[in-house]
Amino acid sequence: MNDVNRIRTDIINVAKTFGAEYSEKVLDEVFQVFGEQFADNSFMIRTSNKQPDKLGCYFRYHEEDESQLGLAWDIARKSGLLSDQGRPVDQLIPEICETFPIMADGVDFDVKHGLAKIWQSIKGVVPVQDAFKLSLPASVTTHSDFLKNHHLDALYAFGIDYHHSSVNLYFDTYHPKHHTSEYYKNLLQDLQFQPPSDELLELLTNNGEIALTFNFASPRIERLCFYLPFLNREAVPQNLLNPLLKKYINEAPALVDNPGFILGWSFGPQGGKGTYTKVDVDYHGRTVPLFMKVHSQPLPKAADFALAQ
Questions:
Q1: Is residue 172 part of an annotated ligand binding site?
Q2: Is the model's pTM score more than 0.85?
Q3: Which of 43, 47, 67, 178 falls between 20 and 30 A from 53, CA-CA?
């Protein structure tokens, strides 16, 4: 079995094991177009506990070859996996590529619905104000004071969600306050999102990035997510996970013996659907190093961020 076939088999096995609905037809279409990219690049299989009795199943890859950057959007459009529906979200990837130099890009797939998101990681961290010229949801600029007050200004990536017509902005945790539990507690409370346990708040002091979700149809910030990398299974704080996510950590397929993981803790309005945990397995052993590489980029001059002294 070559790597492409093994990856497809592993994805289906994860979906079956954890109760995620999937479509063989959708998977066939995706693998016909992107299968080789999954074998040749940073690749992840993700689960999340949006539903209490089963896990979702998603998969994604990141492209770092400069000659291939930006091509995923073209490939998806030409293949029919992504269509132009005349929405603002449909034009964002070309705008981003024309505005910023790109360091890496990636594509996210759902096992039932197919292509879901496309990411662009900027080469060099930029002030978030530089992105205001893009056709982003109006809620981004209306929250400019919120972003400034919480030091959410060191922008390094975009995630364009075609299923939900939304945009994720990813920020580097450069500021000293980003590494205090009080910061995360205040950040969530300011959005009226339910804060987690003190144990998780303390873990977030090591947080590597903060993602905010903005929807074209909503005036508010829809979701916050905090991402941390872990070098192997033993490093993952399984005491903070439910039994199904623990099972995934221990059984997740990979081409390396003891893979790393990236965990994301997502928060939304109290009583809403935005609060859950995401777990990505570093299938080829390339994702955690890429995460570290992205977050080792130098910040622009301090004046651009008005850094606290």
A1: yes
A2: yes
A3: 43
Q: Is 234 annotated as a binding residue?
A: no
Segment 214-231 shows an average pLDDT of: 95
Task: List own/partner pairs for 93-100 with CB under 8 A and 24 or more apart.
Answer: 93/118, 93/120, 93/160, 95/134, 95/135, 96/120, 96/134, 96/158, 97/69, 97/70, 97/73, 99/130, 99/131, 99/133, 99/134, 100/126, 100/130
Beta bridge partners of 151: none
Strand pairing category for 261-267 and 154-161: unpaired
Give the pair of three-digit tokens for residue 288: 């955690």
Do residues 155 and 122 lie in contact, with contact meaning Cβ atoms separated by under 8 Å?
Answer: yes
CB 224 within 8 A of CB 169: no
Q: Bridge-partner residues for 44, per DSSP?
A: 60, 282
66 is in an annotated binding site: no
Q: What is the dihedral of CA 292, 298, 303, 309, to 10 degrees?
A: 60
pLDDT tens digits along 259-282:
999 999 999 986 667 789 999 999
Q: Consult the annotation and say whether 41 binds a ligand.
A: yes
